[in-house]
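Trying the structure run again after the queue cleared.
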Amino acid sequence: MGRHRPTRTRRRGGYAVTLPNDASRDQVRAADPDVSVWVTANAGSGKTKVLTDRVARLLLAGTPPARILCLTYTRAAAAEMQLRLFERLGEWAMLADGALSQRLVEMGLEPGAIDAEARARARRLFARALETPGGLKIQTIHSFCAALLRRFPRTR
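Done. Tokens:
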């Protein structure tokens, strides 16, 4: 995932912006919803963070929560991803402007694109995700396939 360098901090627009180190640059690129990626890595390497970042960025870009489907191999991974995503969205709803801007930059958004409206959108995501009928679809491949089979029962 790249060489490890210390994280740098730069002042922009009245708040401190911490730029990701080289190791997390690959994760930021993988979380970009505008590109297709295949994420494979060892346990504890940050796959769940990358996928959580990707879903958060999709939501920030205006994708309706009901149009996002995240598939994992295990129920534990699905539960962990859902927990992390809701923790993040809940945190965004409560953070001060500077801290929220910093979190968005760390996730890969351009500092110049983070204005009052972008922060307001980020703060509304928690309620929007909670109010989505059926909730966010973060599930195992098996449960997704089972749901498909239930929707199209076999007939004779």
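The beta strands are 8-12, 15-19, 69-72, 137-140. Worth checking whether this holds up in the mutant runs.
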